[in-house]
Design brief:
Helices cover about 75% and strands about 0% of the residues. It is globular, with a radius of gyration of 23 Å. A hairpin with a 2-residue loop joins strand 1 and strand 2. The chain has 21 helices and 2 strands. Helix 3 runs antiparallel to helix 12. It is an all-alpha fold.
Length: about 525
């Protein structure tokens, strides 16, 4: 191991110890509301940065810049769609969801909100908790994989054997650290660390492209340096404008629709929605929304620039499989002159750890709450004590982490691929149900169940079951058509929920009265 690697490792150790310490000092959770919602006491900054940091996993600093590195403007529509989804979620969903979850028997989780909102007697709780466990296993795996690839890229010797062995070590380290402080502190620890990690992510992702551009400008300019790397798989580069233009005419309609469809996922993300529920007041939500939208806008712009400038800046071309390491390699190439710069580079690389940890811990906690609060205490053992429910929740964190660990064992797995599958699953299964639960009083339990199941199944069939004959054999509908499964699953679930709600019994007077009371409180 080189001296530079040892310095970076010290930076990592310093950072990880701070995160575990925060978990330890926030270790006291009196009950499930404390452990899973922090007593509904989040301030504006913590709620905003925590929501976005838990959203922007390793794909923000690895998957998305890697996509931009390969195709330039090709994937800009994903960022545009996600930005639109973020804005709409904070403006229309956040405040009403917080108010409605309090009104509906102080619902602590998304599954319990569905159950209480529609009075489904546990049915919606069970189905939605199962969906959360399935898709969060995949989503958490993407975060673990990001952390493992970070370690493998930094500390490997370049050989495939070295990459695989260090990948496994990195995977173990990431999983253990996330487990420790999630188990210790619960929601409050997660949100506090997310605040720190979100700020670190933003500083790192903004600083690196600025420095890279300054170096590029003094070394022939962006256009000339991009042309040196025009042979990488992706768009044909004739000049800088042809690579950067976000309205590239060569992009297919499937690509544009699929990219924009990512924005629909926000309405169904449990780890983001739970932040809305935990804000201490509706007044704070408005402030949180402003902070969150600014954070996301800056982060997406910086992610795009990392991919573009990285292609011009890096000495060696990255392949399609190594493109997700562009941010790591830029930091390695910039911060090299002395021990201080290398340590600073190590702290910036902790931004990737921050992205990984802030997402994985949130996902583990939401999964734990679904299993503990909704399956165990809500269905299996309704008279369970708070102590036993917390124990089951912590056990669920360990089990889901182990499943995610197994999924992430493949070092060749794509971070963006894992994220896109989980994102589509949640967006299609929960998005329409959340929106109609909040804004349509005629929606009912049967409709919610139909929408939830049809959305989840559409994504599974679209992405995982080969059934289309191609020249290379059977392919999934998604790969054959080039359309993102969320672009199909969301409208399918929306239509199913509306149709089934209309052809089945109307909601009871009690449900309608509660809906109207939430509406009149606005």
């Amino acid at each position: 191991m080189t001296v530079a690697n040892i310095i970076v490792l010290c930076a990592f150790a310093f950072y990880l110890c701070i995160m575990i310490f925060i978990g330890a000092i926030n270790a006291k959770s009196k009950n499930n509301e404390d452990y899973f919602l922090g007593g509904r006491g989040l301030g504006a900054w913590t709620a905003a940065i925590s929501a976005e940091a838990s959203d922007m996993s390793g794909w923000l600093l690895m998957g998305l810049p890697g996509a931009f590195y390969l195709t330039g403007s090709g994937d800009i529509w994903i960022a545009i769609g996600l930005l639109i989804g973020t804005v709409l979620n904070w403006i229309f969903v956040s405040k009403k969801l917080r108010r409605y979850t309090i009104k509906s028997q102080n619902s602590l989780t998304i599954p319990s909100f569905f159950d209480n909102r529609f009075k489904s007697k546990g049915a919606l709780k069970i189905v939605s908790a199962i969906i959360i466990a399935v898709f969060f296993s995949v989503y958490t795996a993407s975060a673990f994989s990001s952390g493992a690839k970070l370690f493998a890229t930094l500390f490997g010797d370049g050989s495939e054997e070295s990459f695989k062995s260090i990948y496994l070590i990195g995977l173990i380290i990431a999983a253990v650290v996330i487990l420790v402080y999630t188990l210790l502190g619960g929601f409050k620890a997660v949100c506090t660390t997310d605040l720190i990690q979100g700020m670190l992510m933003l500083v790192a992702i903004l600083t690196v492209p600025i420095i890279a551009y300054a170096i590029i400008s003094g070394n022939g300019g962006l256009d000339a340096n991009l042309m040196k790397h025009a042979d990488i798989k992706g768009y044909e580069i004739t000049n800088a404008a042809s690579f950067i233009n976000p309205l590239d005419e060569g992009l297919s309609w499937q690509g544009i629709i699929s990219g924009l469809a990512w924005g629909l996922g926000y309405f169904g993300m449990p780890h983001i929605l739970v932040r809305f529920m935990a804000v201490k007041s509706e007044k704070e939500i408005k402030k949180s929304g402003t902070i969150a939208i600014i954070w996301v806008t800056l982060a997406f712009i910086a992610s795009f620039l990392i991919g573009i400038f990285g292609r011009a800046f890096l000495t060696n071309n990255l392949s399609e499989t190594t493109s997700e390491t562009v941010f790591i390699r830029m930091i390695q190439q910039i911060f090299t002159d002395n021990f201080v710069l290398i340590f600073i580079g190590g702290i910036f690389l902790c931004g990737i750890l921050a992205a990984v940890m802030s997402t994985a811990d949130s996902q583990l906690l939401v999964t734990a709450s679904a299993i503990s609060e909704d399956l165990y205490k809500g269905t299996i053992k309704k008279d369970a004590s708070e102590k036993n429910a917390l124990m089951v929740g912590r056990l669920a964190v360990i089990i889901i982490a182990l499943i995610a660990f197994v999924i992430a064992l493949d070092p060749n797995s794509s971070i963006m691929g894992l994220v896109s599958d989980a994102w589509a699953g949640f967006g299609a299964a929960f998005g329409p149900v959340v929106l109609l639960a909040l804004f349509w009083k005629r929606s009912n339990a049967a409709g919610a169940m139909a929408g939830m199941i049809s959305g989840a199944l559409t994504v599974i069939v679209w992405d995982y079951i080969p059934m289309i004959s191609t020249a290379d054999g059977l392919a999934t509908i998604g790969s054959a058509t080039g359309l993102y499964s969320l672009a199909i699953g969301f409208p399918v679930a929306l239509v199913m929920m509306i149709v089934v709600s209309l052809i089945t019994k109307a909601p009871s007077d009690e449900i309608v009265k509660e809906f109207e009371s939430v509406k009149t409180a606005e």
